[in-house]
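Budget justification note: compute hours in this period were largely spent on complex prediction jobs such as the one shown. Inputs:
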Amino acid sequence: MNEKAHFSEEEVAICSDAINEGKYQGLPETFRNHLAECDQCASEVLLVADIAFDFSLSANQNARGSKKRWFFIASITSVAAILIFAFLIFVYNPWNNSINEIALIQDTTSVKNIKENQINKEIDTISKTNQIIPNENQQMAAFIEDEQFEKLYESFKESYRGSSIEITTKGVLTYPQIDSLKWNNKYHEKLVVEFYTNKGVLYSNETTDGNGCRIPKFSSGLYYWKLINMDYELLYVGKIKGNI
Amino acid sequence: MVSPSNYTIESVTIDVIMDLIKKVVVRYVGKKSIPIREKKDVEMAIMEKFLNQRDKINASFQKKSSVTTYYIAIFNRMCCEIIRNDNKHWYSITESDKEVVVETKASHSLETAKALIIKNEVKRLSNVLLFFNREQSKLLLFLKYYFNLQIDERDILSYSKDKYATVKSMLIPSDMLSQAELYNVLAEITNLVENKDLKGDAVRMWLNKNIDLILYRLNFNNESNHSRDSLKILMETGGIQSEDVNNKTISEC
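Corresponding output:
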């Protein structure tokens, strides 16, 4: 450039940038010589450099502010997200609720199963009870005394007919603890032993000329036995309680 | 946010252009070159001028500087042109028509404002001293000695180069000297470093001329109203130092 001509706008800008960037000594010598001599251009360069420096400062501040704003917004958003997440986890707990629901469903199912089992058990129990009840009734019925036989039993309690036969096992016998009937049959008379249920139904009979006979297998219940000779005389009536 | 140095002609938005225009105009408002009531009108006038000449302005840009600095230079000249054209009209308005500026509460404290102003002026002074080129280091050393400011070793080295030790020993504290003795000392230093035969009076004329030049450039276009006293304060406050040490250390001299 002509050292005597004033700077163009871009030359002013070049010098201003060089001053702000600390590169003034890197300017062409013609530029520096002109600035040393021309007050007008020197002042213009100084003013433009000053304004440009001010603009760069404000631009950096805006950038920092923008970054700060974004950082602030990002921080607030992060904190809010963390708080919401914590709230959901510890207070509202939708996932655990779901899990709870699942567990609840499972529990419900298991409860159902349990209940069903219980019901089944109860049913079983009831059925068993029902089973027990008829058994008990049966058992109870099995021990119900027969009126007729009781009278006969009472009449033969302490006495017996027939002088040749002496009953050893008297009274109420408990079977299977006592598994045979015993008497003294001196003359080896032929005797008939009849066993009856408590309903008066002939259970079994046996003929023997010995001094006793085995009691047949009884289930639980009350039984009666008759001892009869060949003359059809009733010699004894006894009771047997089958206690199986 | 795009750094100013990274702007291109295409990336500069209208908002950035308006911002640049406002920064230029506010300088002249501060100097009272533009009345505050005319501020917005001047800004709009500059924007209108720019939009009308935008293609020509952009075509002239050779990308040797940053586009924002280039635009600032453009807007500065436009603003000066508007001031030249409308200045008489602005200040022909009577007192009663003048806008009363209500002082608003400052957003910064007074101390902060003072610090900012001083910092800005120190920067301007540093830039002015740059324009003295090869005489910058000599002028800075002589100014500090003249104003009885603390002289940094770098200031001595930057001017004296390999004669550092001798020059340093010659710099007697100036507050003990008269003006004549002070200039004689500086003359001896000049003769030693530059191999000349000058008297104190020549140094006095040289130093006064350059002080006036500094003040002139600082105050050019009513940018400021500095004096020798304020110049001394700026130099003392700013701690301005010579940058030209030619990569030599003190131990090497």
